[in-house]
Design a protein that fits this description.
single chain; alpha/beta; six-stranded mixed β-sheet; 5 helices; about 30% helix; elongated; disordered N terminus
């Protein structure tokens, strides 16, 4: 990431790394006390999102990739839609695995807080791509540049 790709036959691309880390509501974090910084070191209410996508990470994937011990049992809650998992975390139901780009709004408005410093850089990346078969209309190009700027400003 870190730079704009120039238009090539109507295509723009801004590859952006994504980072995963535990998030919870401020109230849930307060209940954890000092344990909030080491969520892997206890039996906490983990909120899971299941997906058929190979590039989606589960808690097991996160723990394994970071070579962290997992002492928690199965997830307390499991959803098949990530927004539902975030809603449950925001409601104080447990700890969700947050994808940085997707949780920034909630971190900014204070309904979620990050737990600890452990994070995982996902193998996949976000991309802004315009189809080569789509004529580059000014509004579409402006949107693509705006998305690139917003995503790149996060690096």
């Amino acid at each position: 990431g870190g730079q704009f790709w120039t238009p090539i036959r109507g295509q723009f691309c801004a590859p952006i790394d994504n980072v995963l880390y535990p998030v919870a509501s401020p109230d849930y974090r307060a209940r954890l006390g000092n344990a909030a910084d080491t969520v892997w070191d206890g039996d906490h209410d983990l909120i899971s999102t299941i997906s058929d996508r190979r590039d989606w990470y589960s808690w097991d994937d996160w723990f394994r990739a970071l070579d962290l011990p997992r002492r928690s049992g199965p997830p307390a809650l499991t959803f098949n839609h990530f927004p539902d998992a975030l809603y449950a975390a925001r409601a104080g139901q447990g700890i969700a695995l947050g994808w940085d780009v997707l949780v920034q709004t909630y971190l900014s408005d204070g309904t979620l807080v990050r737990l600890g410093h452990a994070n995982l850089v996902a193998e996949g990346r976000f991309h802004v791509v315009l189809s080569r078969s789509t004529p580059p209309r000014p509004a579409l190009l402006a949107l693509a540049h705006w998305l690139q700027s917003a995503l790149l400003s996060r690096e």
